[in-house]
Amino acid sequence: GVTVSDNTLDTAGKEDVDSNGTIDATKNVSDDFAVGSIFAEFTNMGDRFGITLGVDYIPFDADIDKRSITQSELGDEDDSASTGTNSVEGTVSDHTTIYIQPGYMVGPSTMLYGTLGFANATVNGKSKSITHTNINKDKDLDGTKIGLGIKHIYDSGLFIKADWSETDYDAVSFTTSNNTKATADLDNTAFALSLGKQF
């Protein structure tokens, strides 16, 4: 089947200037975007209860919007002061979710279900700064997904699903050449509509 979802990605950023465990700056940002995915799943149904095992893959990249700030660097006795723009941005790619959905039939063709899943993706972090070497690194991004939804199956075998979910990702960190540690903690809320065909 195929899915279209409306997402809100919340990112909590922290900066530890000298990697000593003290947080020197924080920034929270939110990005809204729609994305499509493809999925395959197997459902085993009883009289009233059923269970679905599936995998969902997003064949597109999702960008975390670029943020910029102007910074002045004080010069020493050999160098003059300079002013420039620091920026940070990210891209999430190869997003795959493996999930299980226990369900309860509320009618002959309609099932309410819950979702528990494990998500994995790659996040590419890019940073430009006047005080350290630029960063362009990939990190693994793992997360846990929970959700609720409803599924209706038509006589032709076509089915539709509508659901809400939240994915809580593990924090990822990047360290610059001047030993500044930046950490991003991502959480995603999604409302999705799926269309599929069962055999």
How would you describe the overall organization of this protein?
Helix content is 0%, strand content 77%. It is built from no helices and 10 strands. Strand 1 (2-16) and strand 2 form a beta hairpin. The termini are close together. 19% of the residues are buried. The model has no long low-confidence stretch (mean pLDDT 83).
Compact overview of the structure:
This protein has no helices and 10 strands.
List the defining traits of the structure above.
199 residues; mainly beta; 77% strand
Alpha-carbon distance between the termini? Answer: 12 Å
Binned, the helix content reads under 10%
Structural class: mainly beta
Order of helices and strands: EEEEEEEEEE
What share of the residues does DSSP label as strand, in percent?
over 45%
| Number of strand segments | 10
Q: Unreliable segments (pLDDT under 50, ≥5 consecutive)?
A: none
Number of helices: 0
| Morphology call | elongated
Oligomer: single chain
What's the overall average pLDDT, rounded? 83
Report on the biggest sheet. Answer: 8 strands, antiparallel, barrel
The spatial strand order of the largest sheet comes to 1-2-3-5-6-7-8-10
What order do the helices and strands come in, and which of them pair?
Elements: E1 2-16, E2 25-45, E3 49-58, E4 62-73, E5 82-105, E6 110-128, E7 135-153, E8 158-169, E9 172-175, E10 181-197
Antiparallel strand pairs: 1-2, 1-10, 2-3, 3-5, 4-5, 5-6, 6-7, 7-8, 8-10, 9-10
